[in-house]
Structures are given as structure tokens and as C-alpha cells.
Model the fold of this input.
Amino acid sequence: MNTPSERVPADADIVAVVVSYQSASTLDYCVRRLRGAHGIAEIRVVDNGSGDDSLGIVQRNASLDPRVRFIGNPDNPGFAVACNQGVRDSSAPWIAFVNPDCLVGRDALARLRAHARALDGECLLGVDLVDEAGVRDAAARRRDPDFAAMLRSRAGRDLSLPRDPAQALQRVDAISGALMLLPRSLFDRIGGFDTGYRLHAEDLDFSRRAREAGAVVAVANDIQVVHLRGVSSRARPVFVEWHKHRGLWRYFSKFERARRSAPVRVAVWAMIWLRFPFAVLRRL
Done:
């Protein structure tokens, strides 16, 4: 009978980093799918102070598979901090960030890595994300936020880009943090995730910095992954919306504030924070 370590292919070179918070409802399924996926050398589950059975779930998987490790934070320092922790605890040359509510197919990450290897240079790649009903996730393909356009119209606030079926690998400004793959060399060169973000907009920031470093940012339209969306965020709607709006202001401050006039800066601040109570009410 084969031991778990004997089932790991010699060419496995991807670390899957899973950041969890109150994700017990999907975490076991996610980790088991990753354990059965091609190309996975390491699995790092970084938990941000969950009060559910996340620890027990990871322990059970780790007892069956030495690739699985649990990193437990006593509180919730945020998604960006946890992603960086997972990478530091690994050594694989390829990094895949996978949300605990993403159900990765057996060959999805290996095929994504093959796309990356075929490109001339470093890259940050995402996949075609869909929900249980097959509806596409608008966050999978996005353009950079244009805050001046957001002020002018509601349409300017829509960052989503349509899927181009003619392109197996579609270049975009930004991909979703729900599933990302990149080489460790790029992650190290751009300094990982900006830990000033607590929740939301860190993927927009990460994608932009990768592009500015010369990397290709693209979505593999021929690889589809089910994303159940928002499993861990449903328990704390006010917390989530607060940090979502705070993240947008941080993004604006980093990339646009210096070249905007004082009236525009005030208008953007007002646009972001006046929407906050209405966003909370919609969630509630």
C-alpha cells in the first residue's frame, strides 16, 4: 500500500496557500480537492482565528497527507498578512492562492502552470470562476479602478470585463484573489501582498504591481473553477464592508491621489464612504 508521500509526483512544484476564516463548511472539500490535484507539492492552510472546526479539519487532512500544514493566527490580521505567511512557510517555486470556497479540479492548477510556462516571462494568472449554477464571477476579469470615471457615472464603478472566448489566455488589468498562480520569483520581486489591506482590493493592488513590474496578468478562459463566494464573509457583513471600502480608499491613495486635485480627492473620499451604510444595509 502506498504511503501519502509516495503518491506525490516527482515533478510537483506548486504550493497551494489557503487562507481561512470561519470556513469549515467548505474547507475540508477544498483541501481534499487540492490533495488530489496534479502538481501540488505543498498545502498551507493559514487560519485567521476561526472559532469553528477549521483546525480539526486541517489536522485530519494533515494526518493523511504530509504536504498539508496548518498555520494558526490567534486573531485575524487580514487576508494579505496570511497569504504572505503561507508563502514564507513553503519552498515550492510556484505559488497558488486558493480561497477555501474554491473547488479546484484535478488538473486545473497544473494546466494553469502550463500556460504560465508557455509565456515568455513572469506572469500572474487566474481562471474562469463560476458559481454553483455556472454563473461567471464578475471579479475574475477586471480593469483598474478609474475613480474619476466612478464619480461621473454608475457605469464607471463596474470594473468587470467580458470573457473573450477567442482567447485561451486573456490579458486583463486585474484578476480575482480567489485563485491566483504565479512564480515565487515574481512574488518576491514585488514584495508579496500589501499588508496595509485587511480585506478586499488587495488583489487589485497585487495585480497592478505585478503588471508594473513587467509581468503578464491574464485569465485562462479554458480552465473553469467553481467559486462558492463569500462563505467566510457572511458572518460579519459590517466588518467586511468596512474593510472593503477602506481598501478602495487605500488603493486610490496609493495609485491616484497624488495626481488628482484636492476637490477630486474629497469627492472620491465622499463617494466611497457615503456608500458604506447602504452597502451594509444590502448585506443585512
